[in-house]
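Format notes (please read before filing issues)

Several people have asked whether sequences and structure tokens are stored in separate files. They are not. Every record keeps both together, in the order shown below: the sequence lines, then the token lines. Line labels are part of the format and must not be stripped during preprocessing.
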Amino acid sequence: MSADLVLALQETFQMVWVSAVLTALGGLLLGVLLILTDRGGLAPCVPVNRVLGLVVNVGRSLPFIILMVAVLPLTRAVVGTTIGTEAAIVPLTIGAIPFFARLAETALREVDPGVVAAARAMGASRGQIVGKVLLREARPGLVAGLTVTVITLIGYSAMAGAIGGGGLGDLAIRYGYQRFETGTMIACVAVLVVLVQVIQMLGDLLVRRLSHK
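Then the structure lines:
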């Protein structure tokens, strides 16, 4: 069983790592667009902002287990199958992007408006303000938000086991639940708890370092 546990952990790492990278990119882009298109933003456009906000809100409101089933056709189109670790990455990413987008938006809103105004007064372009002011100043909040998102992805990845997504969730269901192997269930839960603790500690450490710069 130890070999199965190691394999399941590797599958969980793969799911979480790939989906976390895609989520960071997609969610950050969406969060920046929400800030830019808002009233008083660098590129105000209320209709676009409302549409983006609606998309984010709908994405955040869907229970992940329902989302996994709903995007099965898209998953098959992207990776050619609806079962396995690679297939689970699709709903994981789709489910996490709106979640992180709101956290990124919140972190960006906490940037001192005076710093942005000073950059605009010095003739900085929108791209420069976003890259050198907003994203730079919001790094602690963005890292904290990403840490929460990665931990959420770990929980989502466990649920993905319910539809054959692989990983620790799949192992817990196949052996711990269906075969009544309590030891396997406890081992999977323990590994997930340790994994979450490690991610949280690393995230907190990085936030503290960025906050002192």
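For reference, the curators noted about this record: The chain has one domain: 2-211. The radius of gyration is 20 Å.
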